[in-house]
Task: inverse folding
């Protein structure tokens, strides 16, 4: 649903300069506000003391998470939705756990059990079936 909304707004504002940056900024503000609400909910309406977070390794992790895995990822998703459809993007992101598991097994020598392989096969099979059925509908 989210990819369809982003695709809608990318197309709706196609004549606006920096539309991807604007949409990305709006999404990042929404993520920040929802994260703040989550923290307030967890700590019963008060903002916790986070002075322990002011250490180089903590700040580096926070910066990486905030910048690379949130801001850059959201920006690249918006940029990609100019080229691919929301359905194609959803299929790609649905297969992400499979690729994360395979890279984890390869790079970190994590062990995968039978359930991991069966789950990965089900996810990839669903993606393939969806992609093939979309291609068949386009031919009709």
Result:
């Amino acid at each position: 649903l989210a990819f369809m909304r982003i695709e809608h707004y990318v197309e709706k504002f196609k004549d606006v300069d920096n539309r991807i940056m604007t949409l990305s900024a709006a999404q990042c503000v929404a993520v920040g506000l929802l994260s703040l609400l989550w923290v307030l909910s967890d700590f019963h309406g008060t903002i916790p003391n986070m002075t322990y977070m002011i250490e180089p390794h903590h700040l580096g992790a926070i910066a990486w998470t905030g910048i690379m895995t949130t801001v850059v990822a959201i920006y690249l998703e918006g940029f990609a939705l100019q080229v691919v459809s929301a359905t194609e993007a959803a299929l790609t992101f649905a297969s992400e756990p499979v690729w994360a598991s395979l890279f984890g097994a390869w790079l970190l020598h994590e062990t995968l059990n039978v359930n991991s392989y069966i789950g990965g096969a089900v996810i990839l099979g669903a993606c393939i079936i969806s992609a093939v059925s979309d291609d068949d509908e386009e031919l009709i």
